[in-house]
Amino acid sequence: MAQASDVLAIKYRPKRFEDLIGQDTISQTLSLALSSKRLSHAYLFSGLRGSGKTSTARIFAKALICDNGPTSTPCETCENCTMANENRHIDIIEMDAASSRKIDDIRDLIEQTKYKPAAARFKIFIIDEVHMLTKEAFNALLKTLEEPPAFVKFILATTDPLKLPATILSRTQHFKFKRISQTLIVNHLAHVLNLEQINFEQESLEILARSGSGSLRDTLTLLDQAIIYSKQYVDVSTVTQMLGLIDPAFIDSIFDAVFSKDRSRVTAMVKELQEYDGEMVIDELIAYLKEKLYEHDIKFPTMLLDRFLHILSDAKSLFFLNADSGFVLLLLFSKMIEALKLKEIDQIIEELENTTHEPQHIKPMPTVQTPIPSPQIVPTPAPTIAETIKEEPKIEPQTDAIAQVEPESQPKEDERFSKLIDRLIDRNVNLGECFKQSVYLISFEGNTLTWQSCAEEDCKKVLRNGYSVIKFMVQEIWGIDVKISNKPCDEVKKKSEPKAAPTPIIEPEPIKEPDIVDLADEDNQNTMGCVANCETPPAQIDAKAMLQEPMVQRAKELFSAKRIVVQSKV
Length: 570
Ligand SMILES: [Zn+2]
What we know:
Distance between the termini: 70 Å
CATH topology of the largest domain: Rossmann fold
Bound molecules: zinc ion
CATH class of the largest domain: Alpha Beta
CATH architecture of the largest domain: 3-Layer(aba) Sandwich
Oligomer: single chain
Shape: elongated
Number of helices: 24
Strand content: 5-15%
Number of strands: 13
CATH superfamily of the largest domain: P-loop containing nucleotide triphosphate hydrolases
Structural class: alpha/beta
């Protein structure tokens, strides 16, 4: 029986299916197979180390040979169960293929399959790390695996099923063991410590579980060490010291320094960190940030976490260049401080938008992805079908006709058009009023916004001057690649009778308009706009020009952005 001096991994090795941690599906399936006596002659258990393969194999073997069995609930008291639990049953033969991998070893094993079990109803062969067998050994095993005597059962276990020949895979029932989740491991550690009557800090168990990388056995071994090292009280500081990790409290204070942009404090802390392995520090920082993401810590918004993680992954690659770890750490924290400034740039843009009412829809977002030589422009998809005519006395008959064709989309486009008018008035009362009085929506179809303009000379001038603004607002509402088609006043009267079909874009007098709206253009020198006669150039040009903005360039530099996406805010 287990002694108090036993290591925890052995002392708390599961003895029943229900004791298995994190492998519910597998223990249920095997239990069902045992209860219904639908047994295969060969099983393959694959999964990460420490995920419970060997424990499951032993429980399954015991279940097969229990006096009451085969049963999913072995009695634990009969001779077979007792011997199996003590790992000394003569008919359960365990072999480690990592050390016995040659053809002779397999020949010995095959020889044993010829003799009937000594005490139990089955003779069970558990072969661990089966992928380590040589090719010849596999071939020798194959025939026996295919047609073993009725009293023989094979349980093969491997961490690397891909290395097994297809012939082996096809002759076994394959069970894939999942990685045990960190939460389950932490709960199990807490359970073990409670049974051992040892006090602990919850966070220290999380650190241990993280270091065990999903292996319950490895984590329990670390816990053994921690109990000795921490003199019966498992806490964060002793666990981090034992594992050579950084105390989370120290990482907290580094990020405090980063957030307060206190470069001298950061430099001093980097000096302290130099006693640790640089790559390990980065791994710790990544784990720390991951934790912040799970906690939804408001100090670490997603965008910031994303930037920080990119900085960390860049820093990691510097180690391949044999860079000094102090230098890499200082560089990465400095980059993090710089990254905080981008938030300020966002704020500045926001402020600019608020104070000048500059079109808001283009907002550069550097995202680091696959390298692309030039910035990529991803326009927001524009709305598809909609058609309407502004309620206006002089074109009343047409209004009715068209409203009947597309009754549902009309309110939507009307709404958008009123929104456009509201925004124009909000931006410039004169421009907005002129627009409201003299421009009427006809339709929005196939990405073309068609309107008619019946502006008087004065208003025409205002509209022409403000055209770039109008266009930007239209793009904001209908999407960046919308085209504007303008109908002269009387032409509409003639043409609008028949249909709900797309209106052709007409350019009686092609006038080139500027590619980008300059703030200065708005009310004075820009006379190239067109409301009376116009066709919008491809929207990409505006976006491209926007990408040339110094502020965007600076942000691009700062984050070595390889891809910039321009999106409409609407
Ligand atoms: Zn039994």
